[in-house]
Write a structure and sequence with these properties.
- The protein has 2 domains: 204 residues, Rossmann fold; 49 residues, no CATH class.
- The chain is α/β, with parallel strands linked by helices.
- The relative contact order is 0.16.
């Protein structure tokens, strides 16, 4: 039985990424999903990151480190806020993809639990769906490193899964995320649930239940899967999600107001050191 390695996993994802994904979303979102779906997910995440930046009150000129920068999408956007971003990623393949997409910010190779930076080097650190892919026993070390390179008074934006399961995802309950960072010296400034996607989640659960039936052909939505032509069942699956996902995204602002944060798939946390 092979042992899961985040670095090897993301190296494989980067190596399988095609050149047609100009935005660089597929390698860091869902490699086998249609482009429209990844753009929808990216838009939802971008709204959440902007909201987190407002909570964090990060000023222009701030030095911000994006841990697990992938193809550089957040680095390019941080420049819109007049931040001074730096990206670090464990895989050279992701860094090559970032450079090929005209990412002008400094890019450094390094693992989240061994960051190659001095203590207090940054005003802010962002971790957007990165630690959730690190095995649970290594997550404290990764977060400790983020707190180490953060200057006193600086802010950490943590955007991670709070539900789900998989061979390469290791979510924690909101209380677990906040208590873990608190033990490392982070004070919670605020948090909110992200991506309720009620109709789409219900449809995916139904599709998976059908796929578990004998002789059923399961729809593919695994981030590690190689890009390949879709079967008829997959085409139907994504065709139906083209209705459920946008509708759910449109209703998400209402869901955020009336539902408990814990019902979302992700939590977005802002901590101050």
């Amino acid at each position: 039985m092979s042992t899961y390695s985040p670095k090897e996993y993301w190296t494989g994802v980067a190596d399988r990424a095609g050149g047609g994904d100009a935005a660089g979303f597929a390698p860091v979102l869902h490699p086998d999903a249609p482009e429209w779906f990844n753009r929808l997910m990216d838009d939802l995440q971008w709204r959440a990151v902007r909201r987190a930046i407002e909570i964090a009150a990060i000023p222009p000129g701030a030095r911000i480190l994006d841990v697990g920068c992938g193809t550089g999408r957040w680095l390019r956007r941080y420049l819109e806020f007049e931040f001074q971003p730096t990206g670090v990623d464990a895989t050279q393949g992701m860094l090559r993809l970032a450079r090929s997409r005209r990412t002008v910010s400094p890019l450094v190779a390094g693992e989240a639990f061994r960051l190659p930076f001095a203590d207090g080097a940054f005003d802010s650190v962002s971790d957007i769906t990165v630690v959730q892919h690190i095995p649970a026993d290594l997550q404290p070390a990764a977060l400790a490193e983020m707190m180490r390179v953060l200057k006193p008074g600086g802010v950490l934006i943590l955007f991670e899964l709070i539900r789900g399961k998989g061979t390469h995802i290791f979510p924690r309950a909101p209380k677990d995320w906040t208590e873990l960072v608190a033990r490392l010296g982070g004070k919670l400034a605020g948090w909110f649930g992200q991506e309720f996607l009620l109709f789409d989640r219900a449809f995916v659960r139904l599709a998976r239940a059908i796929a578990r039936r004998p002789n059923a052909s399961p729809p593919s939505n695994a981030p590690a899967a190689p890009i390949r032509p879709r079967s008829g069942a997959q085409s139907v699956y994504w065709g139906l999600r083209h209705a459920t996902a946008p509708l759910s995204a449109w209703l998400d602002p209402v869901a955020q107001k009336i539902l408990p944060n814990s019902l979302a798939t992700h939590g977005v946390f802002v901590f101050q050191k």
